Every structure is written in C-alpha cells, then in structure tokens.
Amino acid sequence: MNSLSLLFWIVSGILLQLTIYLGIVYWRHWKVYHALPNREDLNLTDGVDKSPDLKDITVTTRLEFRNFIVDRKVMEDACSSICSFFLVPEDKKPLPAFLPGQFLTFRLDLPAARGGSEQIIRCYSLSDAPRPDYYRVSIKRAPPPLGSHVAPGRSSNYFHDYVTIGSILRVRAPSGHFNIDRSDEPLVLIGGGIGITPVLSMLNWCLANQPGREVWLFYGVRNGREMVMKSHLDALALSHTNFHLRVCFSAPQPEDEAGRDYQHLGRIDIKLLRTQLPAKLYHFYICGPTPMLESLVPALKDCKVPDTHIHFEAFGPSSIKRRSAKDSVIDAQNEAAMAIFVNFAQSGKQLQWPLLAGSLLELAEAQGISVNSGCRAGSCGSCQTKILSGEVAYRQPPDYDPEPGTCLLCVCTPKTSITLEA
C-alpha cells in the first residue's frame, strides 16, 4: 500500500466518523423537537384571526377582562368544600391559550358590609388541561381560622354561595410563571391540599400529550374526605403504566384504608421522596401551603437537585423566596454601600429596607399597611402603587404591565431609597 492509498483510507475513516457523529446529533435533535408539543397538540387557539396585527391584538387583550358564563358546578370532595366551576366565553369566541399550571384572574363585585358592592381581584389556578371549549377552576371554601373572629375567605365563599349556573364572571386571560416544562425528562408533581389544582392541569396535559414520559404524583391531604377527584386519579393510574400515584394522608379517618385509599401515612417530606423515587434527574413541580414548600425546596437543593429543576408555587398569605448565593452577596454589597429607606407617604411610615426582605408588599404587610393584592406573582395588577420618588427593581418580569410611574409591590424591591403613595 503506497502513501497515497494510506492517505485515502485515513481521510475516509475521518469522514465516516464525522458522518456518524452528525447523524447522532441530528437524531437527538429530532427526538427533542418531536417531544415538544405544538399549539395544535395543546388544543390552544389565539382567539384572533391570523392578521399582521396579531401580536398587538394579543398583548392588548391579554390584560382585558372578558365575560364568562358558569356552565357547570361540580363538588369534588366528600365534605363539599371544593367546587369546580366550568366557564365558557359569553361571546363564544375561541379561548386564549394557556400553559398547564397557569391561573385565571377574576374581578368580582362582592356585597359590601355597609351596603352596595365592592370590587376585588382574586386569582385561581386552572385545574384541567387546555381545552378548546371551556376553562375549569376548582375553588376551596376558606373557613375562618379556628377560635378566631376573622371573617372567612370572601371570594371563595362568594363562589360557593352566590355563583350559580348561568352566572356571568369577569375573567382575564390565563397567566403565571408556574407551568410545566415540555421535555421528556422524568417528572415529579407534588400537591398539598388545594395546591393540587395546578398540578392536575399539568398531569392531565402530560398524560394526554406525552404518554411515554415518566410521571410521579405525590398528593397530600389529611384524609379521604378532603381528597378531590379520586376516581379520576385512580383511573389515570390504571391506564398509564408510566404514571405513579402516591397519596399521603396525615390524619386518616377510621373508614380510610391503607393501600386502598392512600399509600403513605404522614406528610410529604424529603425522606418519602428519597425512598420512593429511583435515582434519576427529575423536574419537580410543587404547589401547596408555605410550610410544605419551606421544608421541601431547601431539602431538594441539599440533595443536589439543580435549581433549574425545582419549580414551585405557594398559596396563602406567604410566599417562598428563591435566593441564590449571588443575590445575597449583591444585597450585602448594596447595603454596605448605602442604606435604603422606604417611605409610605399615606401611612406616614419610614423604614430601612431589611437585607432579607422578600418584596415591598411583604414589607408593607409586616407594618400593618393595607395594600390590595391578588396573585402575589405580578400578574393581576392589584398591588399597583404610585412611586413618588426613587426606583425599584423586579426579581422577575411581571405579566401585568404597570402604568408609568407605578410599580407592582408583590414582585419588586427598592433599587434606591423610595417613597410610595401607600
């Protein structure tokens, strides 16, 4: 074999290896691409004709309220504390798109204590996969705290007691940053109490559109009387071998049978997850009361789960702050450089901004300053407040676009000393 033949075989070998490599890369790209659903797979429609001005129309209508009719009411639990409301558009136009896990914003006219009505804003998670003909929200009646004279949840009790089939509600298009990723990586869904609602939306969509994806659902309630849609969840577990249902009762009733009604006694904690889940890299989606998140989120990080694989949403009056070491260093540097003061003009209070404060809304509430709030995620605009002087910074881009010279207290912090109208 002469040198020319040897060179030919060497070049041929290199080209063959390069072809194989490019083929593998293309195959992986093709697999990931086809794992992502398109708008038709999601049954999503824009509700607007495909015209050159579509983008402008979408931005304009996303923040507007629209009339919806209550088509059905369905009680979902044995103690009749959680009710699903099926909503259809009064104008019969297509529904705006949404991602599983997002919520609806409602503008409600509630009876006022001194007569007349009072307008409030409230947000409730969509509890079903995207469908072309209706939205579903499942709302838990909030009773007053035991031994307290505090009034029960106004909006939830209004839905249960006054909203009937045929009622018309003012609803804004779905929004929110808590929504499912659409890769083919294994998925762990965790719902505590009524926190199951956005998780149900994710689960229903995933099993319908990603039938081969490994999915675990850990659902925690006190007992069987509080569990919602049990027959639906059991049917999904029987019909999808890749779906693993784990129901946890913290205080089962005598009629609740282990192995039939629930799989685990106690609350959802990191020990349960470690004993149940095979050693894989999962995406975790968690929604529930603040104490559950305050326990699980740091524990998952301690178990070396990447921050990008931990997604959560709290319900109730508190929220969980996701803070990195970099954030703490920057805040410490800023505080060392200058003291930042927050002035509440109407309330007449001036405070130094605490290093570990979560948001301006939380600071106001801690001082007993009354501020309207709804979603606590920068989506409803309820906490929009005028800035009299100074600047703010947002931890995440809000869905709601605040008016010039105002800010959304629930998702911003002071960048400089600031004076607010509140």
Structure description:
By secondary structure, the protein is an alpha/beta fold. It folds into 3 domains: 54-143 and 150-175, Translation factors (Elongation Factor Tu (Ef-tu), domain 3, Beta Barrel); 187-315, 3-Layer(aba) Sandwich (Rossmann fold), CATH 3.40.50.80; 326-420, Ubiquitin-like (UB roll) (Roll), CATH 3.10.20. The protein has helices at 3-35, 54-62, 154-162, 196-209, 230-239, 270-276, 290-302, 325-337, 360-366, and strands spanning 65-75, 82-89, 103-111, 117-125, 135-140, 168-175, 187-192, 215-221, 243-249, 264-265, 283-289, 310-315, 341-344, 349-352, 384-389, 392-394, 406-408, 412-414, 418-420. It has a 6-stranded antiparallel sheet, covered by helices on one side. A 6-stranded parallel sheet has the order 10-9-8-7-11-12, sandwiched between helices. The protein is globular and about 100 Å long. Residues 29-61 have low confidence and may be disordered.
Please outline what is shown here.
With 422 residues, this protein is an alpha/beta fold.
